[in-house]
Specification:
By secondary structure, the chain is of the alpha/beta class. It has a domain of about 180 residues: Rossmann fold (3-Layer(aba) Sandwich), CATH 3.40.50.300. The chain is built from eleven helices and ten strands. A six-stranded mixed beta sheet has the order 6-7-8-3-9-10, with helices on both faces. It has a four-stranded antiparallel beta sheet with strand order 2-1-4-5, covered by helices on one side. Helix 5 packs across helix 6. The longest helix has 18 residues. The radius of gyration is 19 Å and the shape is globular. About 40% of the residues are buried.
């Protein structure tokens, strides 16, 4: 299968070279791939680099990012704007701070729709998506302000806004870390359902090992700007191949003594659940 996304990139910031160093990976259509790394490893930099949003931070990207056969690094800014939000979408960590607090939900959805469509049927599309993401489908819900939503509702609004134009790739950057355990589980199920129904690929960036294990068919471990190991999720969590991977997983868990227990939980979980059984196989190399 031809990859939807094939990237090889390095990123430098002013006074901080080598934030990413020859990071290479592929994602196939409909695949959900996990990216795990400790804080400062470069996970969010990858997300912003794929969307070419590093300019405001002074970052420079080297390499290539082939999306649907086109190298995004060679596109003009105007051409890249047509891809962001339409073909590649992003969901961030903090839903309430990502929404404009002074604009009604409907206004923000309408603006997102008009960015890539001249038709006026945004409301019908929005309410269809609200039903899909388990939000109220009454039109008066569109009149609410972000402050009138729970964190879980706000995250679902952001997800609905991200998939408004049926993107082929969704980047979720720590999109469940601000949620309570029950809402987090519901959002993970929502991501899986959206991937299946829209044939949408996902790059799921997280430090939550159990979330990655439950959602992703393959994962890559990022450490100090490099992918140190990648492979099938079950194999990676059961038998890390390198000491660097094990050390990183310990850092992600947050305490070295807790890794064995959590890996034990993951082994039990992975032995009883088929990880992303509906996802297509791909490779992160």
């Amino acid at each position: 299968m031809i990859p939807l996304l094939k990237a090889r990139l390095s990123v430098d910031y002013p006074n901080k070279p080598g934030v990413l160093q020859d990071v290479e990976f592929e994602i196939s259509p409909g695949e959900i791939v996990g990216l795990v790394g400790e804080s400062g490893s470069g996970k969010s930099t990858i997300a912003l680099a794929l969307l070419r949003l590093l300019d405001h931070k002074g970052g420079s990207i080297h390499g290539e990012i082939f999306f649907d056969g086109c190298d995004l690094l060679h596109l003009k800014p105007s051409e890249m704007r047509r891809i962001r939000g339409r073909n590649i979408a992003l969901v961030l960590q903090s839903p309430l701070s990502s929404l404009n607090p002074v604009l009604r939900i409907g206004t923000q959805l309408a603006e997102a729709w008009r960015a890539h469509s001249n038709t006026k049927d945004w409301k019908q599309r929005a309410l269809e998506l609200f039903d899909l993401v388990s939000l109220p489908t009454e039109e008066n819900f569109l009149d609410r302000y972000p402050r009138q939503l729970s964190v879980g509702q706000a995250q679902r609004v952001l997800i609905a806004m991200a998939v408004l134009h049926k993107p082929r790739l969704l980047i979720a950057d720590e999109a469940t870390s601000a949620l309570d355990a029950i809402t987090q589980s519901e959002v993970l199920q929502l991501f899986r359902r959206l991937s299946q129904q829209l044939n949408m690929a996902m790059l799921f960036i997280s430090h939550d090992l159990l979330s990655v294990a439950s959602l992703c068919s393959r994962i890559a471990i990022l450490q100090k700007g490099r992918i140190v190991e990648s492979g099938a999720t079950t194999q990676m969590f059961r038998e890390p191949r390198t000491e660097d991977t094990r050390a990183l997983l310990e850092a992600v868990v947050g305490q070295a003594s807790g890794l064995s227990a959590q890996v034990g939980d993951l082994r039990h979980y992975l032995s009883s659940v088929s990880v992303s059984s509906t996802s297509r196989s791909t490779a992160i190399e």
